[in-house]
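Entry type: protein chain
Record version: 2
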Amino acid sequence: MTMQYRMLKFFNGCLLIAVIIAGCRSDKNPVSVTADRECNWLEEMTIAGLQQGYREGRYTIREVVNAYLERINEIDRNGPALNSVIAINPDALQIAEALDSEMAGGKVRGPMHGIPVILKDNIDTHDRMPTTAGATALGNSIAPADSWVTKKLREAGAVIIAKANLSEWANFRASVSSSGWSGVGGQTKNPYILDRNPCGSSSGSGVAVSANLCMVAIGTETNGSIVCPSNNNGVTGI
């Protein structure tokens, strides 16, 4: 059974799921993640590769989470400004440090321990990130409890680092709405060709994985809302 299949089985059939792409690896053992830019170590990383790096002490969960947050700032908020991320988890680094402490003490919750995840912003998280569905009317809406998938991810040791942009109200805003546009997040851009359709409604989730802003992103599927952004942004959606 592959690592990817074990991860999918963990979600117990839940159709809010995401994307992993294998890729570039370095044979070096960097002192820190920022010191090793040969082959841009973070791009196309796999869950199995990341877990191996944790075990071998090549990087910590905090370093990995920080590297993803820096990348979000560099190319999602700035640079090409992909607009795939609506909100950053202000507690992501502290959560990562706590998971590092668990690992140092010999506790590993499973294959998702320390894995950075981005959730579509119509999935409730009971933390300091609002759940808006992209609508300005819900701009300050804090969910009273975690959704089931959020709860299971946290229990498994995943680090929810951000919420993803989407077609507002999961594309129920209007019959002529633009894929990947929301009042809160603006227009999500296709990372390959910035003026092309990223598709939706899980636009930010697809783009975030494609642009290597996280290891895994979760979307929601009604009628092509995962498979279409996966297709348009060159990733795998389930």
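Comment: DSSP finds eight helices and six strands in the chain.
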